[in-house]
Amino acid sequence: MNDILMLVVKFMLLLIYLISSINNFYIKHFKLFILFRYFLAHVFQFEIFDVLCEEAGYQGPLHLCDLHGSIAAGQKLKYIFIYLILLINK
User: CB–CB of 89/83 below 8 Å?
Assistant: First the structure.
């Protein structure tokens, strides 16, 4: 599961980097790229939440998942943030 999550995070950062660099050159399509960026952020939010719910041991529908009090999900989220900070500061 860690490999899938790290692959999703790397893909998300790569797309954000590509979209940001494209935005510098194609100003007339700026609104389209902003909408695409928000769409991707929304999709990745659900992907990360799904991984955290699986880490907490929840097996039901995603909209009923409660992460409150889950130490394992908190540790996973902490590792995601640390990984993102290390990637951004390279």
Answer: no
CA nearest to 78, candidates 60, 86, 13: 86
Domain count across the chain: 1
**Under 8 Å between Cβ of 35 and 19:** no
The model carries a pTM of 0.62
* Residue bearing the bigger pLDDT, 28 or 67: 67
N residues, the chain? 90
C-alpha neighbours within 13 Å on the C-beta side of residue 77: 15
Range of the domain at 20: 2-88
* Tokens standing for residue 47: 């992907």
Give the Å distances, CA to CA, from 76 to 54, 70, 83: 11, 10, 11
Residue 72 identity? A
* pLDDT tens by residue, 11-36: 777 766 666 655 555 555 666 667 77
